[in-house]
Amino acid sequence: MKPQILFALVPVLASSAIAQSGSVFGEWRGQAQYNATVRGKPDAAGHSVVAFTIVVQPGGKVLAASSENGCKFVGLATPGVVPSILNLDVMASGCSYSSFNQRLTGTLAHYEREKNTIVSLHSTEVGFARVAGYFEIKATLKR
Known about the structure:
By secondary structure, this protein is mainly β. It has 1 helix and 9 strands, in the order H-E-E-E-E-E-E-E-E-E.
């Protein structure tokens, strides 16, 4: 029975190695577009296109920043449905548009053939205590 357990772990370890050799981890740079929709209408004050950097460490820690609008991010990346996709869960702080200073979730998808990575983050606020809104950040990044 023990040999079967060992063989069951081999694919898990192999997929982890593929994710690391497939260049999902590391530093990515490019332009990001920030969009805010408040009470069902685009908020021009929440729109910007700025330089964006994200670092995903092999252990899953995520650090990112957009110095032009002050946004800094820290959080966690977890495995997605395939080794080239990671699920992101980050907390933003320091953003000049204060509604972005919150928890955002999304994905990082690496496309080896194109040598780029697409990051998509979003948050939805619903309720009476806060203004209802949808906030998103999208970026196509390279090494």
